[in-house]
Fold this sequence. Notes:
- The complex is a heterodimer.
- By secondary structure, chain A is mainly beta.
- Chain A has helices at residues 6-23, 33-36, 40-44, 58-61; strands at residues 73-89, 94-96, 101-111, 122-131, 134-140, 159-169, 172-192, 198-222, 225-234, 237-246, 258-267, 270-278, 282-291, 326-340, 343-354, 361-362, 365-369, 374-378, 387-398, 404-415, 418-422, 432-450.
- A 14-stranded antiparallel beta barrel of chain A has the order 1-3-4-6-7-8-9-12-13-14-15-19-20-22. Chain A has a two-stranded antiparallel ribbon with strand order 17-18.
- Chain B has helices spanning 2-20, 28-32, 37-40, 54-57, and strands at 69-83, 86-87, 93-106, 109-120, 125-129, 136-137, 148-158, 161-183, 192-216, 219-226, 229-243, 247-262, 265-275, 278-287, 298-304, 335-348, 352-363, 376-377, 381-393, 401-419, 431-448.
- Classes of the chains: A mainly beta, B mainly beta.
- At the A-B interface, helix 1, strand 3, strand 4, strand 5 and strand 8 of A face strand 3, strand 4, strand 5, strand 8 and strand 9 of B.
Amino acid sequence: xxxxxxxxxxxxxxxxxxxxxxxxxxxxxxxxxxxxxxxxxxxxxxxxxxxxxxxxxxxxxxxxxxxxxxxxxxxxxxxxxxxxxxxxxxxxxxxxxxxxxxxxxxxxxxxxxxxxxxxxxxxxxxxxxxxxxxxxxxxxxxxxxxxxxxxxxxxxxxxxxxxxxxxxxxxxxxxxxxxxxxxxxxxxxxxxxxxxxxxxxxxxxxxxxxxxxxxxxxxxxxxxxxxxxxxxxxxxxxxxxxxxxxxxxxxxxxxxxxxxxxxxxxxxxxxxxxxxxxxxxxxxxxxxxxxxxxxxxxxxxxxxxxxxxxxxxxxxxxxxxxxxxxxxxxxxxxxxxxxxxxxxxxxxxxxxxxxxxxxxxxxxxxxxxxxxxxxxxxxxxxxxxxxxxxxxxxxxxxxxxxxxxxxxxxxxxxxxxxxxxxxxxxxxxxxxxxxxxxxxxxxxxxxxxxx
Amino acid sequence: xxxxxxxxxxxxxxxxxxxxxxxxxxxxxxxxxxxxxxxxxxxxxxxxxxxxxxxxxxxxxxxxxxxxxxxxxxxxxxxxxxxxxxxxxxxxxxxxxxxxxxxxxxxxxxxxxxxxxxxxxxxxxxxxxxxxxxxxxxxxxxxxxxxxxxxxxxxxxxxxxxxxxxxxxxxxxxxxxxxxxxxxxxxxxxxxxxxxxxxxxxxxxxxxxxxxxxxxxxxxxxxxxxxxxxxxxxxxxxxxxxxxxxxxxxxxxxxxxxxxxxxxxxxxxxxxxxxxxxxxxxxxxxxxxxxxxxxxxxxxxxxxxxxxxxxxxxxxxxxxxxxxxxxxxxxxxxxxxxxxxxxxxxxxxxxxxxxxxxxxxxxxxxxxxxxxxxxxxxxxxxxxxxxxxxxxxxxxxxxxxxxxxxxxxxxxxxxxxxxxxxxxxxxxxxxxxxxxxxxxxxxxxxxxx
Lengths: 451, 449
């Protein structure tokens, strides 16, 4: 590919240089809220929010519940997570190095003060999470590199969500919103100009990708409290990057068009159902979230794309994992302790089980071996494991002389020990095993001020 | 107590800005304004803005908002810029604009939070890298093809003083690309290549801060600072493998560039009411174009492709080390940009108000004469604007506030002039360039009182 003629040589430099410039502008996001939940209350209550939210957290949990907002409020906070992920076995390093995730949280509660029939019925919510340094990490490594592609990198992403909720009466609320990401498409065209010099044109575009969030809830007084059922649908957030590097017009020599493409981040389509009971002191919630992982399109695309009329052209094809759908059960509890007539404290806890969508048996990938000039098998080390997640949190709310809230949460994700079978994982090219374990610790604190 | 609290809040606001901000700003709003009222008045509203557009013009204005406001609008600018009489087909800029203003009081002190966003039609942002010799309208071709997103806080510690500040968001890039395998130069689609990437988009948050002082009920002054921001691109690449099994190939490259740069600015503005129905505004913007860095990459490369056994086949030239790009720094100069705007209340009824607006601004080109190998084209820009606003007060029981519809149009003229090259053998040669820009927009706002 690197040139075998003068012009091709220059092409190689230009292709790589401008290809880099192109791909590096890529910006594809995903939602850390899918891993940790959004907001301190939901995160402390095992991500239960589809029937319990009453503020900006509902933009993710269930937009219908934004209609419970009664007072304007702005919240600012910090959140972070560390990852201690292990993979042991033949050719595996033990601990896998990943960066911690640290970021800031901004949330806005905005009740719309309409009059008449719309009075106290409509509200908006906005939720942002911005990682402090690396706002997006798009990392797709060679398959033989041990990695957890569905966990730490997905936490390194900006999250933008907004929605509205409407109380239509009779205990029924509806709402809708969206999550926003961005994906990159672009081209790099390298050609020889009129003077014989290699010229290029690089054009990348970030294109917004949206996923809808639609929710509804129904509530009815039961046992001195309020029993509420919530249902939410979240569309898939699919953020690709795709850069074509085209130097075919550089000379008569046949240079392939490089397809630098893949899936930087992905959140599957989800449906959540939850039931909550809210008394004066105790709030209980339990729910299930279905995640449609089987639609996962694959992590990376082939570097050389086959023509449409020759789908099996012989170029190297990356392995595609067949993921399966999962269901996440959650339970959360909150106990409210009055501190005075204008202040209260809340103690929260919960548990959820995040099932892994990845198979137990990982098929082999292939790479070109230069010394032997042949394709050789390599193991596919895309690791993931189910997680038991314990959550806890604490909050204080003061209503006078001003509305002030402080909420904290902590989560401990313990990877359920798992043994994977890896084709071509042994040094002799045979099958090997990988034992996975580890934990993830997450925490955050958020301060809110009412207007 | 109140004064102490005010001071504390002001310090807190400044600290918040300092903590969250790194570098500072500019965007398509610099060229075309935000919303419809500001562009209709020549963008001379820094001392006279209370709506969503304060998120761009002067965050301090948010503290004067009379109530919650939601705003959405659309604007578009079409470029008719030509070189040697031929239209250069510079892409239009258009998209949604909008935001929220959330005012309130904390311990009796007016505060406000605002979000302002411009979401372009076709893209969030675009990177377009061209060779420095290639002619391009440097300030219009790509600079304005990007998202603007800003969040601001404001406070009014005394009735005559408003302070505001906030951050806008962008990102820089660092990354690594690796391609390995075998390239089949006889049948490209049978190449056995694969790639891996590891790229980081790092946060760039740039601040804007502003102050407004009310001298009397008929006069106010404003001072706004918008900082510089630059988006860096820091990349490393490696390509390793063989060429149809003839020989091995290794190529490593490091590239660094500033792929977007927008200068810091200071705006000094005033707003006067010479008559109950007439408002006159004037702004003067200092733009630090002198710090401009061109979007041309610095490359470092290492290349190793040994000849195959028996030498290269006939007709094939072995590759050699690429020569680095010699970047010619363009001569940009700081500029003062005057803006003038007038607003006349044409109709003032109990439930209706109609305002008519006009404005002018003059932006001298900051780019020096392009007599060398670079071709960063620009010309002075005179902009004339018109607009109107209709305000419907308390339109119904369901809306205890107002409904406002604003629209504007503007025309910019870039006089045609000739660029003469010092070298008569210059590949591009002498050229004439100039043109016009047409902008228009409409904005709908709902205000709650």
